[in-house]
Amino acid sequence: MTVPPFPGAPPFDLxxxxxxxxxxxxxxxxxxAGLSTVLIERGADILSGASKANSALLxxxxxxxxxxxxxxxxxxxxxxxxxxxxPLGLPLIESGAIVVAWNEADRAALPGILARAHENGxxxxxxxxxxxxxxxxxxxxxDQQGGVWVPGEAIIDPWSAPLAYVHQxxxxxxxxxxxxxxxxxxxxxxxxxxxxxxxxxxxxxxxNCAGLQGDLVEAIARPSPFAIRPRKxxxxxxxxxxxxxxxxxxxxxxxxxxxGVVIARTAFGNLLVGPTAEEQEEREAATVxxxxxxxxxxxGRRMIPALADEPVTTTYAGLRPATQFKDYQIEALPxxxxxxxxxxxxxxxxxxxxxxxxLARLYVRHFGPLTPLPEPRWTPVPNLAExxxxxxxxxxxxxxxxxCEMVTRAEILAALEGSLPAGDLGGxxxxxRCMMGRCQGFYCTRRLMALAAGRLPGLVQPAPVQEAG
Amino acid sequence: MRDAIIIGAGPAGLxxxxxxxxxxxxxLVLERNPEPGGLPRFCGHLGWGMLDxxxxxxxxxxxxxxxxxxxxxxxxxxASVTALLPGGGVEVSLPEGIQRLQARAVLLAAGxxxxxxxxxxxxxxxxxxxVSTGAFQEMVYAGGVVPxxxxxxVGTELVSFSALLTARHAGIRPLVMIEENDRITARxxxxxxARHLLGVPVRLGTKLLAIEGQGRVEAxxxxxxxxxxxxxxDGVILxxxxxxxxxxxxxxxxxxxxxxxxxxxxxxxxxxDPAFFAAGNVLRSVEHSGAAALEGRAAAHAMLRAxxxxxxxxxxxVPVTPxxxxxxxxxxxxxxxxxxxxxxxxxxxxxxxRLRVLADGRLVHERRLHALPxxxxxxxxxxxxxxxxxxxxxxxx
Lengths: 469, 397
Fold this sequence. Notes:
The complex is a heterodimer of chains A (469) and B (397). Helices cover 26% and strands 21% of the residues of chain A. Chain A is of the alpha+beta class. Chain B folds into 3 domains: 1-115 and 241-311, FAD/NAD(P)-binding domain (3-Layer(bba) Sandwich); 116-240, FAD/NAD(P)-binding domain, CATH 3.50.50; 316-397, Immunoglobulin-like (Sandwich), CATH 2.60.40. In chain B, strand 16 (219-224) and strand 17 (227-232) form a beta hairpin. The interface between A and B is large, with 53 and 55 residues.
């Protein structure tokens, strides 16, 4: 169900505020645990905030702070993804990662990185000599000084995973409200009455996983113990021809503030260079900037010189909901019937399934028992990754609309229909890859607009004319 | 096995098909779009057919004429070529499935596209309403869609003026046309046409700094000698800055010239694998469709010679390299022979100087010229100029 509940409807067991990857995983968790659950999203589609732009990696947690909640939940999330990805139709590119040393100080840091990996329960991490790194990654610049090999780090599809979680929840009776901004709430003896832009929603327990708005939403329940300090990450996506230049994920030796600039293939066959890490006040808009993009490219070429000949496909920027704390901010407030999930920074894609399991445990401890559905159905999503067959490769395929990413008309129409149709152009692109390739819509925009006409508001006709002076 | 497969049914590919089919050869043209004709299909204003048909047509009329002239050549639409295989193999995705085809000669004529905002590393947000001229023309002429009312047009190449004509056709009033350089890139009097016939001011020495807007474009930030400025608008047309659609060459086994961005060819339009030929805008920055068509014809004549076993061995070719202020020169390898040879080049930026040809370091030709950005420089070498020469260089000093 994706329409607002009618007035007087019985309250939901659980309302989740925010359909980022964390909210989507929690939605799936509690729906399959037998609760009546509503996922409330202010955007036109899921993944409208921090989760729409990340580095698309499945982390092992090898570099997390040992003993932190983040370390535990990333590890659990990683394990759960490995168990769930096949039945949900999600890709897993088992590339592994190498933390590469580029100077004496980096090299001196490697044993500590390895020791921390082992402490974090990643026993298969091990040192690589410069020769071993060269054998694995012949395109790396010749002055690399060895590294730490982390075989469990992997590449996944950051958009299809949360989409799959929501699909499975919807198939088991979950409710998704989109374009529903939560504007306030009142706590009563039975739970919460949330005010949303689509009308009131009643729920016995509320989960705040509002990401970049997390502290503002938290203020509905209490003065927020954390403040969101958006951290911007810019990325450059290089042409698919560049993906042959790196096999593993190439990580730098991290510093205090950031994991540094990563080079990684994507599930779609491109090569990603990023992110930057820039603190900003603005919560809504993440801009790309020429100087930062050029600096990323320069850093990429420093590590892999052959990147100089590879064209840029596109650039993007995302915001991470960092706080003044390093760790995840997760807390159950039983007397307020509220669960806080804040400060999920760059590891949310991996951590989400671990966070969902953690929340289920908190719920049982503080709010009541859960009765998981006996045999949940699997609702696999269409494959977008190059590691598995795609519709254009099948006999009897429909017309190819997007030639760069080989997206068929049938895939586009399917993404505009069903239980969770694309809510905006970004949602359509994330569901199908259309317009995401080399030409960025030079060849397919009009055809796409014709297919989406009337279904994606704001796509075709311009806003009311405003005479600019 | 076919005599020839042509990849791309635009001006170059269809012109080649016309020659090959006219010579009685068995030709298959593979086109990924639902209909043949290439980019002119969506240029509804006049300006096509002059070089090759000696007529003045709209783009769609020209596209129809090209298809008709291709005569008996088989044109297969909805056919996406996904890989080139050594020795003349072509992997193609057809509605009925993926097939591997083979021909004695294959022509790559996949055309060109404009550089999108990401590849330009443009700053700002990423709202809806930033489009290439190509996408804009298709929206207007094929879809009857008005994507914005008051866009800013970035660039002053020939295609940028085509964007203005397209805008006028759709009742769209661009606010301004901007150009980074101090003169327009297209031949004059483009700026006069823009200002007086189309009512769009042209601002030179003006750079697009950033795009603003969340859902849709709300403004652009511009930089010029006087400083920075915010201009409210509801769209951006990123025109020109063409890049060859040479992915099949880049991703496959053919050698690509990093300077042109297209496959390296010899003076018989032959690629590094002699079973493959290339012609038209897939070779380098954009030329007018008529020039692409004439290259398609010339490549087809070379393919006929290859099919008859009359083409000299590629091993005989002399390499040509660009130097000085030249961005590129092609063909990149020249076959010595009885006929004069033509070389095409472009300068990296506006430049007054001497265009020099050096054979093994020895000056054999020199002329003064004033090179302009995105303008083709043509150079003819007399027959025999390559006699005993190991390497040629062309530079702009």
